[in-house]
Each structure stands twice: as C-alpha cells, then as structure tokens.
Amino acid sequence: MVFAFMLFLTACGEKIETNMSRDVQAFEFTTQDNESLALKDLEGKWWVADFIFTNCTTVCLPMTTNMSKLQDKIKQENLDVQLVSFSVDPEYDTPKVLEEYAESYQADLSNWSFLTGYEFQTIKELSIKSFQSPLEKPPEGEVIKRYSGTDPKKLDVIIDDLKEVS
C-alpha cells in the first residue's frame, strides 16, 4: 500500500529552505468534533499535515506518535502551529472514531484536527495535487507481513507463520 509517509509543513511565506512549492487546493472537511475545518481557516498560519487511517497497524502508529511528540515540542517552544491529520479511510473514520483515536494519543485538539467527511477520491486528489503524495485506499483486509516471492527458502517461513496464526 502506498500513501503519504511524510509530514508536510504548509503556510504562506518562505523563511526556510523549501523542498516543495505547491498551492493547497481549497477544502472544507469535518473534524473529530463534527465541526468544519476549511483551508480558509488555516490561511496565514503555519500548519503540519499528515495522512492516516485509524485502523492502520503499520506506519500510522509511528506517524501519529511522532505527530504527538511534535505537538509536545510545539507547546514547549510556544509556537502557534496547527496540526492536521487527514483520514484516508473516511468511510470507517467517522468523527467519533477520530475523536477516540485522538484521545488514545493524548492529542490536544486546540491545535490538532483530525479530518474526515469526504469521499476517498477527494482526499486522494488533495494528496496528489497539493502534497505531491500518492495514496491508495486502505486494504479491505489487514496486511501483516511481507515475504520475498522469489526466495524459495521463505516458503518454510510462510508455512511456520501460517501454523502460528491458524
């Protein structure tokens, strides 16, 4: 599965060395509090974005943990920065699910918003056009391990793993 494994710093003006220069498409989505957050609400502010889904058991865990640590550092430095986590699984990630997810990371929702309330295609287009980051819809099942398909020695490892989980 491919989706944004990066954080994105967004705002007007450039005082740092940049590695991107993209306009963010206008959006207005639903927060974990079932309120609206739009790009216009973030205008003139610095904000960091990522793309997550709450039932992810791989990259989302360290990404959200790192966002939580970033939030702590932002507070320590007394910086006025917003954090925005876009769900790539809006069908599953309802505002209530996002609220519970935020609580599990002790997110301070005064400057960290978790967004949903759109079709997958909408967030896919935003990710690609605004952040140059392709993403795919989360799998219906859960992928838990990868094996080399060209190494015959891995067949025994697969069998051992299947015995363990069966």
TrEMBL record:
Keywords: Copper, Disulfide bond, Metal-binding. Gene3D superfamilies: Glutaredoxin. GO terms for molecular function: metal ion binding. It comes from the Bacteria. InterPro entries: SCO1/SenC (IPR003782), Thioredoxin-like_sf (IPR036249), Thioredoxin_domain (IPR013766). Disulfide bonds join C56-C60. Residues 18-166 form the Thioredoxin domain. PROSITE patterns: THIOREDOXIN_2. Cu cation binds at C56, C60. Belongs to the SCO1/2 family. This is Cytochrome c oxidase assembly protein. It comes from Virgibacillus profundi. The lineage of its organism: Bacteria, Bacillati, Bacillota, Bacilli, Bacillales.
